[in-house]
Every structure is written in C-alpha cells, then in structure tokens.
C-alpha cells in the first residue's frame, strides 16, 4: 500500500484503536445478550434475568456514550495534529 | 371521566400537533433550522419505532412470554452500539445519493433499477397495511376502555367509526405536512418535530405509569422484584416465561433488521437525517429511550395480573390498571401516550410508503405511458408527483382501515407487528450486501429478495391471516423461528450465489464502488453531452422542483463554473449532481431515466468503465509524477541554495583576502616610504643613513617574500604548479629541513627527538615541495613553541600500500581546539603578528602543496603540544585526475 503511511502518529493511532473498540463493542454486546440464554435459559428467564439484562443494557448505554465521546475527542485531536505539523512532531 | 372530556382532550392534543408541525415548518421555511436539527430532536423522532404495538402490546407480550418482549428493544440497541461505523456509514452513503426510501437505496445501489425498487415497495405495502390497521385498532380499543368505563359512555356500538375518523384525520395531517413540497432532500421538519413531541408524551406517560406501579402500588423496586419472582414461579406462567434460545436469537435478529429496513425507521433514521453527526448522540440516547420504555413493562404486566380480573386483556393493562385504581388523570396521560404512539407510527409509515409507491410505482408508469417529448412546457411533473403522493397516502390509510374493518378480531392483528418486521427483514441481505460487497449485483438482489418475499408470504404472512396451514416442523422447534431463519438463510444464499456467478452492468459497478467505498460516484467523460442540452434540462428540473428553485439551482451551478446566466456547461460532475438532486425528489431510477431521455442518454459500456479505471490510474500516475518532479525541484533548490551559500562565503573570503593583502602590503610600504623621506635629510650621519637603508632593504625583501608567497599560493591554488617527481629519502629531507629551520630563533636550544631507523623511507614525490612544507612546519614549531625546554618530536611511518605519514610534534601549549580549523587559512595568525613576523601564508601554502602532491596536512589534537601530520600518497596524482586530499 504505497498510498497509506505505514505508521501513524499518536493521535491517529489512538483514534484507530478507539475505532477498533467501536467495532468490537456490538459483537461483545451480542454475545453477552445471546450466550446466557443458550447456556442457562432457566436462570435468566425470571427476576434474575431482568436484573441481568437491564444491568447489561445500562452498561452498554454508558459504554457507547463514553466511547463516542472519546472518539469525538480523538477525532478533534487528530484534526488539530494534522493542522499543525509542529505539534504532530511533538506528539511523536 | 366523561367520554366527551376525553374526546375534547384528544382533539385538543391533535390541534396541538397540527400547530407544532405548522410552526416547525414555518421556522424551517424561514431558515431557522438550528434547533430543528438538534440531535435530540433526531433521537426523539427515532422513537417512532415504539408504535402502539409496543406501547400497549409490550405489556401483553410480557405477561404471556416474560422477558422475551425485550428482544424487540435489544435488537435495535445492538445495532446502535455499532452506530459509529455502521449507521454513520449508511447515513453518509444514503445522503450522498439523496436516497428517498429503503427501496430507493436498493435501487440506486443495484444500477438504478426501478423494478427492484418496485418489488421492495410491494413488500413494504404488504407488511405495512396490517401494521397500520393494528395502530387504528389500538386507538379504537383504548377509546373503548374509556367509553365502557364512562357513566354516560357511547358504548361499544357508537365507536365503530373511530378507526375511520382516526385514519381520516391522520391522512389529512400527513398530506398537509408530508407533501407540502418536493424538495431535493425529502425532509419534513414539521412532521419530525411533532413526532419528537409525541415521543416525549409517550415516554412521560409510560414512565409515570411505571413509577406509579412500582412506588404507588408495589412497595419499591425490591418488592417489585419479589413479585416478579413469585409470578415466574407460578406454573401457569413459568412455561410461557421460560426463554427459548432459538426464538430469542431469531427475534433479536429480526428486530435488529427492522430498525434498518422498516419504511418508517428508514425515513426517520436516514432520510430525515441532515448528516451522520447526529448519530453521535443518538448512538447512546436512542438505546436509553428504549431502556426507559421497556424498564417498567414487566412490573406493569405483573401488577396488572395481580390486581385485575383474569378476563382483562393484558394488551390493555396499561390503560385499565390506572383506570381501575381511580387514577383518571394518569389513565388520560397514558391514553395520550398510546394515541401518540399510534399516530406517529401511522404518519411516518404513510409518508415513507407513499413516497415509495409514488416514486417507484406511479411516476414510472405515468412517464412510460405519457412518452413526454423533451421540451413539453405544459407538463407539470411536480404537481403529478405531489398528487401521486397524496393519493398514495390516502390509499395506504384506506387500506389500513379496510384491513382493520375486515379482520375485526384482535388476535389476528396482534401478531402483525412481528409479521411486518420479518417481511422487511427480507430486504436486509441485499441492503447490507450492497453496502459492504462490491460483487453484489442486481440479479442476486432480485433472487434474494424474491426468494425472501415468496418464503415470507407462504410461511409467515399468509398463515398469520389464516390462509394455509402451519409448517410441518420438527418437534421442539418453534415454527415461527424456523420460518424466519429459513427465509433469511435462503434469501442470503440466493443473493450471494447469484451475485457470485453474475456480471453486473457498468452503471451498477460504478454505483457499487460508490456505495461500498462511501465515495462520490465517479464521473465519466462519456457522460459529457452537447452544451445545447442545458435548456431542456432546466425545463425538466422546473417540472420537478418548480420554476424558482430550478432557476436558482442552475444559476448557482453556472456561477460555480464561472459562467453568468442560468445555463451551466453539461460537465459530468454537474450532470451527476443534478441527477442525484433529482433523485432526492423522485427516486434514483426515475431521475436517471429522465436525465437520459432529456440529455440524450449514452449507455455506459464495460470498455467505458475500464477507461474510468484508466483515467483514475492515469490521474494517480500523474500525481505521482508531479510529486517526483516536486521532490526533484526541492532537491535542485537545495543544491542551488548550497551553491549560493558557498559563493557568498567565497565572495566574503575574497573581500577579506583583498583587505588583508592590502594591509600586509601597506605596512612595509609605509616604512619604506617613511625611511626614504628621512634619507632625503642631508644632515643625517653616514651611520644613520646606512641603518635606515638597511631597514628599507629589509622591508623591501619582506615585500618581495610576501609577493613570492602570494604568487606561489596562486599558482598552487590554480593547479598550475609544476612538479618534479622523483625518489627521495625522508631521512635526508628531514635533516635538510632541520638544518634550514635552525636559522629561525637560533637562540632557542631545541631538543630534537627523531627515530632514525624508521626515517629511512623512500617516497616518490616532489622533494623540493615536500622540503618546503617540512621547513615551514618545523620553523613554525621553532617560532611558536613556548615551552621552557622545547622538544621537537618527529615520527615517520610508512602507510599500508605505500606512502608515508610524518608527524611533527612540539611540547608547547598547542592551539585551542576552536581555532584549529583556522590555521590553514590565508593570513591566519593566531599569536601576535609582530612577534611572528610572517604574513600568515605559510600553512596555507603547505596545505596547497600537500593537496597538489595528492596528500594532506592536518592538525593533530591531543598530542601534548602543537602537532602536524603530513600524509604522503604512494605517488603523486597524474595531472588529469586532480588532487584528492588524503588522510590516514
């Protein structure tokens, strides 16, 4: 890939890894939602199941919120870094 | 509560909705779209997902099947956790192509095929009609609850017309605010704002009821959990409540598909989105809304079962529970929430389906029937499209109402929500495949969607309306799950299989590239047509957008090209943009066909595509070539700069040299002149005269020496020095040099340290020149060595491969490291010039001689005094090769 840089500076690298996290999150969430029902359906069908699923759900909402905020900040940081090359060199 | 009061509240609420929609539309028309575009409004408008089916039905569903009802909300939540890379991309691509509906998206991706869009529209119509009927039914049922409870209620009989009234009212609202204009982007600020308000009402109503149930009826959350446990332990419920993994998975899959493919969801999620930025908020806020809407469902279901008679319909617990507890205001609020849920779903669904029906069914048929000539002035396409939408909205509403009237019973309708979900889910493989896989093609999409449609009809839709029997399924398998998985798997396999063996046409491949890579569609030079066609295009755009907007758009485009007037050049980029803007009003397939017809269509061929690739490749190569040239230029500039610096330095050096030389010549000249003046004096004694003449002679000699040195240096520097190469013994040369130098400061008794055996080394060189260097170096040592007991060390050794190294070292204080580089320069005198008495040319001449001899002379630091190293090559260079400095 001659057009892409082989290595990224810190800001872009950080943003890419957060992007990876954003890709993994739905898969993780799907596993957490599906696996217990296949594994121990009788234990997650009643009150305990309600606690499990609503707790998981609230956690997911929080995780997405934090992730999106981090991604927005990382994008802003990347934009800043690419605007001023001096800063980018400092960040190396 | 009197039924009239309910009716009045309801009417008041409807008037409020009309007012809000009207105000928002007016604000948008004036350009006040900032708060209308707020991500929160967008998020709230997504809540159109929670229709009356979920508002009322979720509690019924939960009381029958326990936690399974959550799947309907968990699917969308999972999709939204992937909002950053998934939904954002979908929205960006769809906005880029001005997609108007899910059918339009599929059609635009697969080569702007209208037939494909028409099939997707068919699924949408079949799935939506019963779904709308379900909403009408929920409104009628909720009215009934109040009517039957009210002391002077109209009774069940008087409510037969409820469905009709609601349908008619919603049709008026939808037509008023949904078909006001035919903008380039199908956004409806009025509708979206009204829906956002309804979303708030829904949420407040449901949460209020939930809080009342948990803290008013039960004794807090722990007590509620206890009650849920007890309900779950009830054998009557336990069987139904036990989660079935296969069904759980299939339901989550289908509801995740539904959030992307349901016409109303696509409308609010994609079409009404100004850009993908709002998903940053919606990504967590919409799951949070769903969380809040479902959090209280199970408590309400359990409490309803405990407190209400067994005959009560669980689907209406939401209303009957507060009513039975005498909480009339709460019941009214809940009623308004349910009413909001039903109406917002119907309005958006009607807009979305009507857009599809008009763009993909009515307009293409009309255009095909009319065969309009290109410049037909009287033809008003805009009016037709808007009227087609209005008719389609009326038709959709009417179909929903007819279906509602015909089906009558509640049982048949209750499952319609899921049936609609599974129907639209059949579009998902083609949609995802089209967005992620460039190899997906139209035939594959036909086969996949077609197979899905047929299987869904036979296995899910028709059984749900009582036609045909259930599938013969293996024991222990849920028939619905089997049907869903079977239809989706076969759909996907057909789509992928046919795509693999097919070869897409060029338009499709261009679109595929644009969709999968989320880049602007590539333009091709073949799309360029004659400039005389701009006017018919303007006429066509006017027929779609109306005179003023079309003129404004063409003028802006012309100005962007640097032209005055209204007719831009038909560049490929202008045509692509125009086509996409038209697609925003009438769908991509129709826009493509119209532009082709008016501007004289040129069918793209595979060869053209390859040429596009070639052009892209050429552009890339050109860029690379330019970059290389740029680098070359930078390099040359750097070299030039260096050369310039060198020249500047040389010029400074030359000036310094001239001024120094003038100074050096002037000093002896001054004394010569002064003493000549004195000699003129006749009173001088003979002795004085003799002394002064001696001074004049010495100064003249010094001048001559200086001029000789300069001449020598100039000859050496210009490379014109003549060499007399011969064999010489270094021992003899050093001895001669020591003898010659001993005349300098003869009062200093130097101890000479020599290693005689090693000195007997024969070298091939110009002996006289080498002797000159040796004398100079040794004389310097004699002059400047400031030790009390001066010692001069001379060491000679042969070099590998011939040549020799001569080190001349004294034991004085040496030369500061900072000034070592200066000593070989002309006129460099480190000590007091008066004391040394030379002009400072000696070492400069030595360096030039050694360079001419092919060797070098350098200062050796760290030897305990001034130390010079003279390096001799095996033989002097031939004249042509030039002198190359040597060092050890």
From TrEMBL, chain A:
Keywords noted in UniProt: Membrane, Transmembrane, Transmembrane helix
Superkingdom of the source species: Bacteria
Transmembrane regions: 21-40, 46-67
Protein name: Uncharacterized protein
TrEMBL record, chain B:
Keyword field contains Protein transport: no
Entry keywords, A to Z: ATP-binding, Coiled coil, Kinase, Membrane, Nucleotide-binding, Phosphoprotein, Transferase, Transmembrane, Transmembrane helix, Two-component regulatory system
This enzyme's EC code(s): 2.7.13.3
Keyword Zinc: no
Main location: membrane
Domain Histidine kinase: 660-876
GO MF term list: ATP binding
Topology term for the membrane: Multi-pass membrane protein
Protein name: histidine kinase
């Amino acid at each position: 890939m001659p057009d892409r840089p082989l290595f990224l500076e810190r800001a872009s690298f950080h943003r890419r890894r957060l992007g990876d996290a954003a890709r993994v999150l739905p898969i993780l969430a799907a596993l957490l939602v599906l696996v217990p029902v296949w594994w121990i359906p009788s234990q997650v069908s009643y009150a305990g199941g309600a606690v499990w699923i609503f707790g998981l759900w609230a956690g997911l909402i929080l995780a997405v919120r934090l992730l999106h905020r981090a991604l927005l900040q990382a994008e802003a940081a990347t934009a800043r870094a690419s605007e001023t090359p001096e800063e980018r060199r400092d960040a190396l | 509560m009197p039924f009239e009061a309910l009716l009045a509240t309801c009417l008041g609420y409807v008037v409020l909705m009309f007012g809000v929609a009207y105000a928002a539309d007016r604000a948008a028309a004036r350009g006040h779209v900032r708060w209308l575009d707020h991500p929160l409004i967008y998020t709230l408008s997504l809540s159109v997902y929670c229709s009356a089916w979920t508002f009322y039905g979720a509690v019924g569903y939960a009381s029958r099947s326990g936690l399974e009802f959550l799947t309907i909300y968990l699917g969308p939540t999972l999709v939204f956790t992937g909002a950053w890379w998934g939904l954002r991309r979908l929205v960006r691509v769809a906005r880029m192509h001005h997609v108007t509906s899910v059918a339009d998206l599929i059609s635009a991706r697969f080569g702007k095929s209208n037939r494909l869009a028409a099939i997707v529209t068919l699924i949408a119509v079949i799935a939506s009609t019963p779904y709308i009927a379900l909403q009408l039914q929920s409104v009628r049922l909720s009215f009934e609850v109040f009517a039957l409870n009210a002391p002077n209620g109209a009774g069940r009989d008087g409510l037969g017309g409820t469905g009709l009234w609601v349908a008619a009212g919603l049709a008026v609202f939808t037509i008023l605010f949904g078909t006001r204009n035919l903008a380039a982007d199908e956004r409806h600020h009025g509708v979206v704002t009204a829906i956002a308000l309804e979303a708030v009402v829904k949420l407040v109503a449901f949460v209020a009821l939930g809080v009342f149930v948990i803290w008013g009826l039960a004794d807090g959350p722990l007590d509620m959990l206890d009650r849920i446990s007890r309900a779950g332990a009830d054998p009557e419920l336990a069987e139904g409540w036990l989660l079935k993994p296969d069904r759980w998975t299939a339901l989550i899959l289908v509801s995740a598909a539904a959030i992307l493919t349901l016409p109303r969801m696509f409308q609010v999620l994609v079409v009404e989105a100004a850009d993908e930025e709002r998903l940053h908020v919606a990504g967590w806020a919409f799951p949070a809304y769903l969380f809040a809407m479902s959090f209280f469902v199970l408590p309400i279901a359990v409490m309803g079962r405990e407190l209400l008679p067994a005959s009560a319909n669980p689907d209406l617990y939401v209303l009957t529970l507060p009513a039975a507890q005498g909480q009339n205001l709460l019941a009214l609020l809940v009623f308004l929430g349910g009413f909001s849920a039903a109406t917002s779903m119907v309005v958006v669904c009607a807009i979305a389906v009507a857009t599809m029906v008009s763009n993909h069914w009515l307009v293409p048929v009309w255009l095909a029937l009319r065969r309009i000539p290109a410049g037909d002035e009287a033809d008003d396409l805009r009016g037709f499209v808007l009227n087609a939408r209005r008719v389609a909205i009326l038709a959709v509403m009417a179909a929903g109402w007819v279906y509602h009237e015909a089906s009558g019973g509640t049982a048949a309708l209750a499952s319609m929500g899921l049936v609609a979900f599974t129907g639209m889910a059949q579009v998902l493989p083609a949609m995802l495949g089209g967005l992620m896989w460039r190899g997906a093609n139209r035939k594959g999409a036909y086969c996949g969607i077609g197979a899905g449609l047929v299987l869904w009809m036979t296995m899910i839709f028709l059984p749900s309306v009582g036609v045909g029997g259930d599938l013969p399924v293996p024991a222990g398998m849920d028939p619905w799950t089997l049907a869903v998985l079977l239809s989706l798997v076969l759909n996907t396999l057909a789509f992928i299989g046919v795509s693999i063996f097919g070869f897409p046409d060029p338009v499709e491949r261009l679109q595929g590239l644009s969709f999968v890579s989320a880049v602007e569609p590539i333009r091709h030079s073949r799309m360029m047509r004659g400039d005389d066609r701009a006017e018919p295009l303007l006429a066509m755009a006017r027929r779609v957008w109306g005179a003023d907007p079309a003129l404004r758009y063409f003028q802006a485009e012309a100005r962007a090209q640097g032209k005055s007037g209204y007719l831009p050049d038909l560049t490929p980029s202008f045509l692509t943009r125009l086509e996409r803007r038209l697609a925003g009003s009438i769908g991509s397939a129709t826009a493509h066909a119209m532009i082709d017809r008016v501007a004289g269509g040129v069918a793209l061929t595979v060869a053209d595509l390859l040429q596009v690739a070639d052009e892209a490749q050429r552009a890339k190569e050109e860029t690379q070539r330019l970059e290389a040239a740029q680098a070359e230029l930078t390099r040359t500039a750097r070299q030039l700069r260096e050369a310039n610096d060198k020249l500047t330095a040389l010029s400074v050096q030359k000036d310094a040299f001239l001024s120094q030389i003038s100074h050096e010549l002037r000093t002896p000249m001054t004394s010569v002149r002064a003493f000549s003046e004195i000699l003129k004096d006749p009173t001088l004694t003979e002795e004085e005269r003799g002394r002064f003449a001696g001074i004049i002679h010495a100064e003249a000699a010094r001048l001559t020496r200086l001029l000789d040195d300069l001449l020598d240096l100039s000859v050496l520097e210009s490379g014109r020095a003549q060499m007399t190469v011969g064999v010489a013994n270094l021992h003899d040369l050093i001895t001669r040099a020591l003898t010659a130098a001993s005349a300098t400061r003869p009062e200093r008794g130097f101890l000479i340290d020599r290693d005689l055996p090693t000195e007997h080394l024969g070298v091939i060189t110009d002996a006289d020149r080498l002797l000159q260097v040796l004398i100079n170096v040794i004389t310097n040592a004699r002059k400047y060595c400031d030790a009390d007991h001066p010692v001069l060390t001379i060491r000679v050794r042969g070099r590998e491969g011939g040549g020799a190294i001569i080190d001349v070292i004294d034991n004085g204080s040496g030369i500061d490291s900072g000034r070592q580089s200066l000593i070989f320069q002309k006129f460099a005198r480190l000590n007091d010039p008066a004391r040394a008495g030379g002009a400072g040319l000696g070492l400069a001449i030595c360096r030039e001689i050694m360079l001419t001899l092919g060797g070098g002379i350098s200062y050796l630091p760290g030897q305990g005094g001034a130390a010079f190293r003279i390096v001799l090559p095996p033989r002097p260079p031939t004249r042509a090769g030039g002198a190359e400095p040597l060092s050890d």
